[in-house]
């Protein structure tokens, strides 16, 4: 049985990607959820329980981590590749060679890029932050550039492959961009109607809905993850 270690569902965008991929594809796995802490990692002072627990599994001390027997895989894209190889019947990458290369390219672009959007609009599924989003959109050109790139990318792929997902059916690429869809929703970022429709379709996927429901149920307010709120409404 596969085991996936993740962080808080409300905040951990990287954890969301493989969890949604496995869940939406109907691949069974056990979940270990480690609550984020302050990540203190100094032997002189109190050490991070999060880091100490993960260090027994992965040298990098980060989530997500997929364990299959004696094998631990701690990079999100590597996890996706491993799962796709282990379950070829799930067709987690497009069957067409060119489309598959394109899908891998945009996942790698997400992996290393979109830093403006990721840094200024941290994932927070439980929140609705239209006022913060409006200020971010006004003041952060990097966010506007990242969203422009997303609109261009998604529009072209949806047109080329006919939807409803980026490559027709659900693939790794849609799981990879699911956390971005939640950010667009949380911060009410302005996107064209066809992009809003794609975001809504992704957020309606059963695997994504399951993550969102569990994220909202956490009610675990971590101030260092909340740059735009003093406290949530439910506190």
What does this structure look like?
This protein is of the alpha+beta class. It has two domains: 2-90, Glutaredoxin; 97-218, Glutathione S-transferase Yfyf (Class Pi), Chain A, domain 2 (Up-down Bundle). The chain is 53% helix and 7% strand. The chain has ten helices and four strands; from the N terminus they run E-H-E-H-E-E-H-H-H-H-H-H-H-H. The chain has helices spanning 13-25, 49-55, 76-86, 97-112, 115-120, 130-139, 141-161, 172-187, 193-204, 206-218, and strands at residues 2-6, 29-33, 65-68, 71-73. Strands 2-1-3-4 form a four-stranded mixed beta sheet. Helix 1 (13-25) packs parallel to helix 3 (76-86) and helix 1 crosses helix 8 (172-187). The model has no long low-confidence stretch (mean pLDDT 93).
Q: Topology, pairings included?
A:
Blueprint: E1 2-6, H1 13-25, E2 29-33, H2 49-55, E3 65-68, E4 71-73, H3 76-86, H4 97-112, H5 115-120, H6 130-139, H7 141-161, H8 172-187, H9 193-204, H10 206-218
Parallel strand pairs: 1-2
Antiparallel strand pairs: 1-3, 3-4
Fraction in beta strands: 5-15%
* Cα Rg: 18 Å
Strand order of the largest sheet: 2-1-3-4
Helical percent range? 40-55%
> Can you tell me the residue ranges where pLDDT is under 50 for at least 5 consecutive residues?
none
Number of helices: 10
H/E series, N to C? EHEHEEHHHHHHHH
At the fold tier of CATH, the topology name of the largest domain is: Glutathione S-transferase Yfyf (Class Pi), Chain A, domain 2
What is the CATH top level name of the largest domain?
Answer: Mainly Alpha
How many domains make up the coordinates?
2
